[in-house]
Design a protein that fits this description.
Blueprint: H1 3-10, E1 16-23, E2 28-29, E3 34-45, E4 62-67, E5 77-86, E6 93-104, H2 111-126, H3 131-140, H4 148-156, H5 167-180, H6 185-203, H7 207-225, H8 231-245, H9 253-277, H10 284-306, E7 309-311, H11 315-321, H12 325-339, H13 345-373, E8 379-381, H14 386-407
Parallel strand pairs: 4-6
Antiparallel strand pairs: 1-3, 1-5, 2-3, 3-4, 5-6, 7-8
Length: 418
């Protein structure tokens, strides 16, 4: 973000302002009938006629909690009024409990959003809430309809990653496509790239999804041409490219956690696998456990710095839920598709059948999430300063280097799409 735009926002901090902006992500439902939205392409005004700055579109991002904002969607333009406060992370400013003065839909309409809403309606018709919301979180990274209570429990149990747009969603999809079109490498590659592009269109340019999409496409390309890519090179290339797209991503917590978890899975997990299993390949559950532990270790300092707590038992609900998520995603996808083909009698029957099976799995997931979320004794509360966070990563790096050279692990053999 140019310095002049940042200073422009700061110049009117602590004042009542009128802001026009565009929602670049889906709103999150907050408490007291408020919605948390993120807006950019700003017009910033002290009142409706006295606007600050010579240009209309200020390159800055605000985080806003808005009252009376039902029906808001990604791409909409809103005009709000409220007191502008200092920002944090990637946000130049914040406005709490803003009043929505005007609201207009994007023109032309977002076709991807129309498809997503069409599909979501089919899922919600045959899978009761909150299971339908959880299923849409798995498939589309769409967590706006999840109850706040469930979102809080997901955070406590270390399971928020399953309902956000991340590498986990894309990895499951690309692996399914590889197995489906495995006999034709070209077809599997093309379908994988198209699926990733479609997911980006449906979900939007969330920082974590930008990272995940880029990494998945690079990994698919390397697999297609038959040349392995060193994970360190892959991480650096993905980080550099995403920051060129938007330099403020580096301040975004989702981007930071996404890259930390990705680094844990690609760099630490192979070393731990070699340490415990040698040349052997572990089965599915041990592999999930190793990857979950690796991602947890890699993200732990960031979580303690930002939130001051972490679940000591996050591994257990991850092991109980993650193996069944691909099946839940497949059943929910088939439910949504066949529900919208309900004009054909067999379509409605199949949708009900797939929805019923998906509901059983999703209820199991919710039961596990709620059970572990109520175990207060399993929450470790510890606040890290910035210096302690840096020291923690230095220790993790030193231990990783010792394990890597001790086990003689060849990281270039790591494959994200296998």
């Amino acid at each position: 973000m140019p310095d002049r735009d940042a200073e422009l926002v700061k110049s009117v901090a602590e004042q009542e302002v009128v802001v026009r902006g565009r929602l670049y992500e889906d709103p999150d439902q907050g408490e007291d009938k408020t919605y948390r939205v993120r807006i950019n392409n700003l017009m910033l005004c002290l009142d409706e006629e006295n606007c600050v700055g010579a240009k209309a579109n200020i390159f800055a991002t605000l985080r806003v909690s808005a009252v009376g904002s039902e029906g808001l969607e990604r791409g909409d333009t809103i005009v709000i009024r409220g007191k502008l406060k200092s920002g944090f992370g990637a946000f130049s400013g914040t406005i709490y409990r803003a009043e929505v003065l005007a609201h207009s839909k994007s023109d032309p309409p977002d076709r991807f959003l129309i498809i997503r809403n069409w599909f979501s309606a089919g899922v919600e018709e045959h899978i009761p809430a909150p299971g339908s919301s959880l299923a849409l979180g798995y498939l589309l990274g769409q967590k706006r309809a999840l109850p706040m209570a469930l979102l809080n429990v997901l955070a406590i149990t270390g399971l928020t990653h399953i309902v956000v747009a991340s590498g986990a969603n894309l990895t499951i999809i690309t692996r399914m496509l590889r197995r489906l079109f495995g006999k034709s490498r070209l077809r599997a590659f093309v379908m994988g790239v198209l699926a990733i592009g479609f997911m980006v269109g449906i979900i939007g340019l969330a920082p974590s999804l930008v990272r995940a999409s880029l990494v998945s496409i690079l990994a698919l390309t390397a697999w297609y041409v038959g040349r392995p890519v060193h994970p360190v090179r892959l991480i650096l290339l993905a980080a550099t490219t995403t920051l060129i797209i938007n330099p403020t991503f580096i301040l975004d917590l989702g981007w930071q956690l996404s890259f930390a978890a990705f680094g844990g899975v690609l760099l630490l997990a192979p070393v731990l696998t070699r340490f415990f299993y040698g040349e052997a390949r572990p089965r599915a559950l041990p592999q999930i456990a190793i990857e979950t532990i690796s991602a947890t270790i890699a993200t732990l300092p960031i979580l303690l710095y930002n939130f001051g707590y972490v679940s000591l038992l996050s591994l257990i609900p991850n092991l109980l839920i993650l193996p069944t998520i691909p099946l839940a995603m497949l059943l929910a996808f088939l439910t949504g598709v066949f529900a919208q083909l309900g004009l054909v009698a067999v379509g409605g029957g199949l949708a009900a059948g797939f929805g019923g099976l998906a509901t059983i799995i999703l209820r199991y997931h919710i039961a596990v999430i709620n059970f572990f979320g109520e175990l207060d004794f399993a929450i470790l509360k510890m606040e890290f300063s910035l210096a302690q966070t840096a020291v923690a990563y230095a220790v993790i790096l030193a231990l990783w280097l010792a394990l890597k050279f001790g086990t003689k692990t060849r990281l270039i053999e790591t494959n994200v799409v296998e």
